[in-house]
Write a structure and sequence with these properties.
Blueprint lengths: L1 E9 L4 E10 L1 H15 L14 H11 L4 H15 E2 L2 E2 L16 H7 L8 H5 L1 H4 L38 H10 L14 H27 L16 H4 L1 H23 L21 H9 L5 H14 L6 H4 L14 H9 L7 H8 L25 H10 L13 H11 L12 H6 L1
Antiparallel strand pairs: 1-2, 3-4
Helix pairs in contact: 3-8, 4-8, 7-8, 8-10, 12-17, 16-17
Length: about 450
């Protein structure tokens, strides 16, 4: 084990110096360091002709099961390349080209957003630097950002109109791409036209479906005895044992169908949002909420804010455990998002156990960071500041995070909406490397 401290200066990225301490095996650290330095210093490398495999997920399975995943990774990549193509020539499986999926995803839109011969496509230009070419949330700037960029391959998205564990609607993804996410490095891009947003939405869905299929096939590989000659998707069988290969292809297509269906079913899982009660308002602007709270006179809105504070502090809502009793983001819960807990829990280690993480970090896992509850004094709402969007965050919870759906009546949720928008002070967030990298 060696500890290396690195300082990198690069004026073109908008920050004077990035310094950090990297701990791990010398080989793994130097590899990550060289890749990071190449990205930061503007060194150009040839674009890969294939998508990067999910080495972290495969390694976590290998550690937990004690079974080598090298063959499983190779055969999974063969299946994915056959069905989804490559960054330079993206494809869609035949079943995703059917009329059922026409409103969700199309090959023409995927190709339009993807790689462009002799140039850089929309996704590569605007998204890959943070989210990675394969959508793994590990682009060249990812390690500098807090929170880390989303890994699309798990099929989980935070800010949506559907319940936890349900896929988002296209409209949800379009909203995030169009407006960005407040308080993060993902900003709205003014130059994007409406058509560009639609194209990028298709590409995100494409990467997500592809990545989730990869994960599901790797899970299946746990039950396959490769050493005795069994296989998951052996392309050599297509010419030697056609029936056996057809069975394997059918299994891949069936697994893909389940993922595709989950996207199609999302629209039917959207819950109706109840209207606010008639005896108190839910203003569209935060200024109206602040004015009511600061007013010396009672009003229905002021009473709603006070009721929201009571609910916020109650045991039933339990908001204070994470957000703090007054909503300052200083609760006692110490937790991590699902993307981190997935692989740490799979191999049975604590997110604070740096030494045990080395095999995963060496394969691309980003070091675990504690997830921070929102400090409402900042006035930032990552899923959108409209009352209806805040209502859904509270009523449905936030996928991929410790925030569950609130177990309180709809009327109290509307009171909570008014309360969390009523904070008067807005302390300036501390300058950090995320803000610098955004520039």
């Amino acid at each position: 084990m060696k500890t290396i401290t690195v300082s990198v200066r690069n004026k073109s990225l908008g920050f004077g110096m990035f310094s950090g301490t990297l701990t791990g095996t010398l080989t793994g650290t130097l590899t990550g360091l060289l890749v990071g330095c190449a990205a930061l210093c503007g060194c150009k490398a040839e674009r890969p002709i294939e998508f990067e495999p999910n080495m972290v997920f495969a390694k976590s399975i290998e550690i937990s099961s004690g079974y080598p995943m090298k063959t499983a990774l190779s055969q999974t990549q063969d299946a994915l390349n056959r069905m989804f193509g490559t960054p330079t020539d993206p494809q869609l499986p035949e079943q995703l080209k059917s009329e059922d999926y026409a409103d969700l995803i199309s090959l023409d839109r995927v190709k339009a957003a993807g790689h462009v011969d002799g140039g850089v496509g929309l996704y590569e230009k605007h998204c890959a630097t943070c989210h990675g070419l394969v959508g793994n949330g590990r682009g060249t700037t990812a390690a500098l950002l807090d929170p880390y960029p989303r890994d699309y391959r798990a099929g989980k998205f935070k800010f949506k109109s559907t319940p936890r564990s349900v896929k988002p609607l296209r409209e949800d993804l379009e909203y995030v791409i169009r407006h960005g996410i407040d308080g993060t490095s993902m900003k709205a891009i003014p130059e994007l036209k409406d058509e560009d947003v639609k194209l990028l939405t298709d590409y995100v869905i494409y990467l997500s479906i592809r990545g989730e299929l990869e994960r599901n096939l790797l899970r299946q590989a746990e039950d396959i005895d490769f050493e005795s000659g069994e296989s998951l998707f052996d392309v050599k069988l297509e010419s030697t044992e056609a029936e056996k290969f057809k069975e394997q292809l059918s299994n891949v297509e069936g697994t893909l169908g389940e993922i595709g269906d989950s996207w199609l079913e999302a629209v039917d899982r959207v819950k109706d949002m109840p209207e606010p009660p008639v005896d108190f308002p839910v203003p569209q602007t935060r200024a109206e909420v602040l004015a009511a709270k600061q007013s010396p006179e009672d009003s229905p809105l002021k009473k709603s804010i006070e009721r929201g504070h009571e609910v916020f502090r109650s045991e039933m809502a339990a908001c204070g455990k994470c957000h703090g009793k007054e909503g300052y983001g200083d609760g006692v819960n110490v937790d991590y998002d699902d993307w981190t807990k997935e692989w740490t829990m799979r191999i049975g280690i604590e997110p604070t156990d740096e030494a045990s993480q080395i095999p995963l970090v060496a394969r691309g896992a980003l070091p675990p960071r504690r997830i921070m509850a929102r400090d409402f004094r900042l006035g930032l709402f990552r899923g959108g500041s409209e009352p209806e969007r805040i209502y859904r965050r509270i009523a449905e919870g936030i996928d991929g995070t410790p925030m569950p759906a609130a177990a309180v009546p709809p009327e109290d949720i509307w009171h909570l909406v008014n309360y969390v928008r009523s904070f008067e002070s807005s302390p300036k967030p501390a300058d950090d490397v995320t803000a610098a990298a955004t520039k």
